[in-house]
Amino acid sequence: MWREAIGRLAEERTLEKEDFLVLMEELPREGEQELFRRARETARSVFGREIYVRGLIEISNVCRNNCYYCGIRRGNREADRYRLSREEILACCGNGYSLGFRTFVLQGGEDPAQDDRWVEETVAAIRMRYPDCAVTLSLGEKTREAYRRFREAGADRYLLRHETADPVHYAKLHPAEMSYENRIRCLWDLKELGYQVGTGFMVGSPYQTLDTIWEDLQLIKKLRPEMIGIGPYLVHHGTPFAGRKNGSMIWTLRLLAIFRLLYPEVLLPSTTALNTIHPEGRSLGILAGANVLMPNLGPAERREKYELYDHKRSTGGEAAEGIRLLETILGKIGYTISASRGDYGEHGVH
Ligand code: SAH
């Protein structure tokens, strides 16, 4: 059963629901190794042994939203809030630039103080100072007009995980004032405005089932994002989901491999969440087909405050200044850091 399922996935790049269930539920150890091997061979045929790095700058942990899973939700009174000024962000970019980063990802809560005009001017300032760099935003749900202005100011990419493609599941993860429809509207707007789009979801979020994950795969098939971000759901003690179980590393790795085999050229990050749930998570992700890492370029004393989940890693190979350590870690599994911006499609079809 599983051999045929992997064969169809790797050779025809298709996945029927029965095969998906086999790969998630009935894969023996040997089958899992085969799945990961095929996925990393596919990644190597497109990207070689080069890993793209993006410098992540967490610009604010102030958020007007109240997502039940997220540690920086508005309702978490214990969160120690901060926001970076434009000058601080530019300083992070400068530091990153000298470390070799050519992509900056500005991620944050939906902070009303960093309004559309502020974001637009910040993007323009980064583009002006670092014209050879790509600017990626990950600032949540905005109006189409705002996305248009950010794009005009020079933003190239936008990361917005859909979180779940099942509206009923979505409503169990978010308060009533948020809607699945708006999240999806945002993703299509971003696509139409010419962004390279990243979407994705947490693996093992409360109420998630294999049926909802299957819906995630269908949405991704329709949207065709340039990047797919997935990582295990991890509990945060200051949320309504405190006391729940963390998501599964195994399922995260299998999904990474499935996405790599379905979409050989897609950008697939090995996430901080994966590296938080397991000390070798980052390398295991790469060996399952991931090809992107996002070390943290933010000021060290702020990183621990951007606490989406408990025990989030922000030092060593997760920190931009740990880039040499990261090189060593990657070297051990036979990979190097790419010097390129790593735009989608750069490698063409091989
Ligand atoms: N405000 C932005 C950025 C959110 S943080 C936005 O809405 O897109 C980026 C991602 O972290 C989220 O999309 C979510 O998938 C993930 N995340 C949040 N809480 C998490 C948790 N407890 N465990 C694992 N991942 C989490």
From TrEMBL:
A biological process term (GO) from this entry: water-soluble vitamin biosynthetic process
Gene Ontology MF terms in the entry: 4 iron, 4 sulfur cluster binding; metal ion binding; transferase activity
GTP-binding as UniProt keyword: no
Cofactor note: Binds 1 [4Fe-4S] cluster. The cluster is coordinated with 3 cysteines and an exchangeable S-adenosyl-L-methionine.
Residues noted as binding S-adenosyl-L-methionine in the record, renumbered to the chain: E163, R183, L234
Pfam family membership, one: Radical_SAM
Domain (Radical SAM core): residue spans on this chain: 49-287
Name of the protein: [FeFe] hydrogenase H-cluster radical SAM maturase HydE
Organism listed in the record: Candidatus Scatomonas pullistercoris
Gene name for this UniProt entry: hydE
